[in-house]
Amino acid sequence: FMPNILIAEKDFSPVAKKVLTKAGRVIDYGSKENFLKNLPQADAAVVGLEIKFNKSLLDKAPHLKLIGSRTTQLRYLDLAECLRRNIKVVNIKAESSVLKKTFSTAEETMALIFSVTRCLPWAFESVKKGNWERKKYGGTELMDKTIGLVGFGRLGQMVAKYSQAFGMHILAYDPYISNTTMKSFGVKKTTLEKIFKGSDIISLHCVYDDKTFGMIREGHFKSMKRTAFLINTARGEITDESALLKALKNKWLAGAAIDTLANEAPDGSHLINNPLIVYAKTHENLLILPHLGGATREATERTQIYISELVANEIKSWKK
Question: Cα(260)–Cα(288) distance, rounded to whole angstroms?
Fold first, then answer.
């Protein structure tokens, strides 16, 4: 028995593919049409974020027994249907070794901080229009400013180290991390409310689940310093996006840089008539990126190899 392993990503690491070829016959993604054509014969699939495995798609895969996802969150998989069909799902756990070596999202957080505090996207747009407006886009320094981290797991801890290098004071809110641990990082543990009231920059690094859904509400934005910035590289659903829009319009904060929106779709269809996108087109205090946090070349290949190894090991166990 030679299982068919279908790759559900357009760009896939040759090294990761080599790992999979030892376990079965690998079928390349090729195109959406090619993927759908090969789905009925797939025994296993290796996925990223390009394909949403809902029930209708799973119905087209009668032989599917295994899905390997190179993500920590599985919201684009119909897990209830996978359970009903006895399709095993393996993914990258938050505490896995591969993530401890992956700094991409933490680095992007700093890039977003620099972008909004120094007005970089809008200054460049101005230059492209033939303007040279140094005073208008001068921005603010990070030295001696306070950054508030909402979530102090792997990424929050990385961002804390980077922030210290820029001479920032660091507050953090995380009910699951002890005061002792935070102190060891030179970070002061505090409440969510104090984070929003006292920080010059607030950066979200908490896991998206039922407890954090819509956790950041209008009252939080209202309590912010008028000179403060919000950074979100976590999940769009953690913030009440209508409240964020209201806050930006009312100048309750100086600006926001977000890498993620609620209800993201792989094809970008969630952007159509999105109020935040509409607002960003005509205002210079909101930066939105297409979920680039973990999308670096290095992180992509590293996670593809890691999940391919998990999938290959699972398939080998079928033969025992």
Answer: 7
d(CA 178, CA 159): 18
Q: Which long-range contacts (CB under 8 A, 24 or more apart) does 61-70 make?
A: 63/4, 65/318, 66/90, 66/311, 66/314, 66/315, 68/44, 68/307, 68/308, 68/310, 68/311, 68/314, 69/307, 70/46, 70/303, 70/304, 70/306, 70/307
pLDDT tens-digit readout, 150-203: 999 999 999 999 999 999 999 999 999 999 999 999 999 999 999 999 999 999
Q: Which residues are catalytic?
A: 235, 264, 291
Amino acid at 145: K
Residue 53 pairs in a beta bridge with: 77
Residue entry with tokens 């599917």: 64
Residues forming a β-bridge with 239:
216
Sheet containing strand 255-258, strands side by side? 188-189, 169-173, 146-150, 201-204, 229-232, 255-258, 286-288
Q: Which two tokens stand for residue 122?
A: 């809008």
